[in-house]
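agent: user wants the full assembly modeled, not chains individually. Plan: 1) parse entity lines 2) check alphabet per entity 3) run joint structure prediction 4) return tokens. Steps 1-2 passed, two entities, 979 residues total. Proceeding.
--- entities ---
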Amino acid sequence: MNARLIALLFGLLANHASAAGWDIAELMKALAANRGGRVPFVETRHLAMLDQPLSITGELVYRAPSTLERHTRTPVTESMVLDGDTLTLSREGKTHTLRLHDYPEVAALIGSIRATLAGDRKTLERSYALSLSGSTTQWTLTLLPSDPAVTKVVLRIGISGNGGEVRRVDILQADGDRTEMRIGPAVR
Amino acid sequence: MSVHSRLSAFLSWLAIVGVLLLIVSRASFTADMSVFLPRSPTPEQQLLVDQLREGMVSRLTLIGLTGGDGAERSAISRRMAADLRADDRFSAINNGEAVHLEADRRWLFDNRYALSPAVNGERFTVAGLHTALQDTVRLLASPLGLVAKPLLARDPTGELMNLLGALDSAEQPRREGDVWVSQDGATTLLLAMSRASGADIDAQEDAMNAIRAAFAKAVASHGAGSAVELAMTGPGVFSVQSRATIKDEVTRIAVIGSSLIIILLLIIYRSLPVLLLGLLPVVTGTLAGIAAVSLGFGVVHGLTLGFGTTLIGEAVDYAIYLFVQQGQPKERRSQFWPTIRIGLLTSSCGFIALLASGFPGLAQLGLYSLAGLVAAALMTRYLLPAMLPTDFRLRDVSALGHRLARLVAAATRLRWMVITLALSSLALIANQRQGVWNGELLALSPVPASAQALDKRLRSELGAPDVRYLIVIDGRDTEAALQAAEALAPALNRLQDAHLIAGWDSPARYLPSQAIQRARLASLPPREALAARLQAASTGLPLRTKRLQAFVDDVDAARQRPLLDRASMAGTSLALAVDAMLLDSAHGARALLPLRAPTTGRQAGLIDADAVRAELATVALPATSPPPRFLDLKHESDALYRGYLGEAIQLSLGGVLAILVLLLVFLRRPMRVVRVALPLAASILVVVAALILAGKQLILLHLIGLLLIVAVGSNYALFFDNGNGDGAAPSPATLASLLFANLTTVAGFGLLAFSEVPVLQAIGITVGPGAILALLFSAMLSARRPLPPGG
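--- prediction returned ---
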């Protein structure tokens, strides 16, 4: 059985589940079944500090359940690797390592995306109230922060996708700044 | 002997003991590392011992929690830490929780313009600001950009990033939740730093008790029936444990040893008054030993006392010889004292050699033994006979003596065995001579091996501040020391770039000298100038400069702020770092810059001392400040100990030579010297070979044990040589007294072999068997003579 066939099978299963009732539990199951891969992304940041939106492109790599990498191509080459509790940033030949635990705001932003990819409902619900809309093939999961430390930074995170694949992440910040990230299909 | 002369003998003894007691009662006792400080230390050795006694490392206690489940241990760790953080006896408690992080970050951020090495005139020109703003835009695009936005608006030149990047971040232990755990997750780890120095053992004991109490409280609040156990280690813990162990062991050995010897003597003497009389030289000798050490060194080490209890076994011999001889005909007695005298002089040669050692611990043992033995012998010779009742007669031991005489006669036929054993031992020692001696200072530690293993494990799990490499800078005041530390920074950076060191730290990182702070703040432009330059610098960039108002305000505020000093760091963990690295010294201030060894590559774990010294030599410091010194603590301590060991071996060899010369002078004939020296040499060889076969590496204290074999055994050999070497057998009574003396010696020393304190055990395991062998070999090698008639 090849990977494509497995994906197809999962699609069928997911559709079947939808008939029975598409809910957060089903979504988490579908997300957890996706063991990861390499996908391109385009991000647009609308920041009050800047006169014009900032466009960022690069690649995301996810390996279930705890490794998330973000390799930025433009405007600068840099990378971020989140492995377990350790966040490693590399830019301009320098490497910084920090512990997610020490930076709750960072954990809220990056950790929530990883938890979504992993289908880790427990971690998500620790800091967010979850609500799901749409269908199996076009769902949107909305994360509303419940943790006061997170509310200071994030107003709302919207994650959309198709089955076990995440297609888009929208972050609305407390100061009105917005970020949209579009995620392409897996690179083969 | 008249009642009058007996009375006067007792009175003079009481007077002597009174004086000795007075001195002993005023003596101060210690169990710390001071005993390892050489009498005339080099500056490096002084630094080494200062660090061991007072340094940051000496204040650390490493704590491990085991048993129970992980969640339970984490909860206990958090409660303990919270409790101990509120305790004045500790300056820091770290269990992985980020309690200081917020305060540290805030302090660094608020004072970034005084602290950042990147702050200079260039940085605030239009060009410099343009580059900074460009970086800011890029940072906004980075994964952390969304979080760092508010920070970037206030710090567009990225000084906080510069500061955090420069802070030396050594590896931290693994975490489970927010607390530290070992790699395998089975031990929860904490670090405690006491306010008191490691040399203050009472304070360290107090701190240990505080930790225990906090643990008990945390366990109790968690619910009964907890399986979690507490383990502690660290230099302070070691000192406390050593003191307790030494005290316990000294008491235990003294009590058991004395009881054994008293029982033995009761069996031999069968008279309480005789027993008491026989113990007088022991008491006198012990007191004289302690008094001599107290007078000679000002302080008596606990180990000296522990060792001293063994002297009981030897000092009691003199009384046994005297009592047994008392029953002998007069002409026999005339040969008795000269033999004892040569024996005493022989023993003294060995101990006088130790006295010359630069190692105070060893010199103390030498002085103690010398004074103790001489006092016991003098007491036996000049006061004890006068104290004996006129009709003193020991019970008849001639029956035993005659049986022994026959045994000796039979034993002489086995003399080939002594030679064979000695020669094969010699061959074995020669073959293994590379690894005979243990060259590490740790080998001398009074800490049991199990505690050392625990220490090693917790230390490596905590990645603990095992400060080995230091650069030491002295200055006439704090400012001078900090300026010198700053002057070294470029050289240290070069070493780091060349991968000769992995990193370095300096107090000037957290608390720059006033001069540097002043220069940095002076390079900040006034508000209007900065605003205008910022406007010009943002040309062509998407950044809205009106959003950078907070930056302009912060720079303006920094210009008005007073310079930083130690007091302004209160409440941060950075203050601790400065306290550990910046000390008041006798001549002003001293800065300690720890270096970290590379973790990978050919030189992993090691720093090339020559390369560092060469690089330091290139730094130009003001003529008034002394040159910085590079210190490798492990190298220094091992070199120190190897120096002691080498010196002790040489001194012992010198002592042996002196003994041979002495014997030649007194015995006049080389053959007699050989006859006396041979059993002793054979005993030493066989004992050393046996230790090697048992897989032991010899330490200094084994060497002392060998000297003691000579001290004890020389009496045996001399008695078998029989005064004038006329071939006459030692009288049966003498033989009996030799056996008694040997039994008490073995009882005294043999007990040490079971001691938990490695150094005491080393002496016991050497002298116990050695004394028996010396007696056996002396008998076997004695002149052949016809069997005495049965009696």
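agent: reporting back. Chain A has one domain: 3-183. Helices of chain A lie at 3-21, 24-33, 104-118, 121-127, 148-151.
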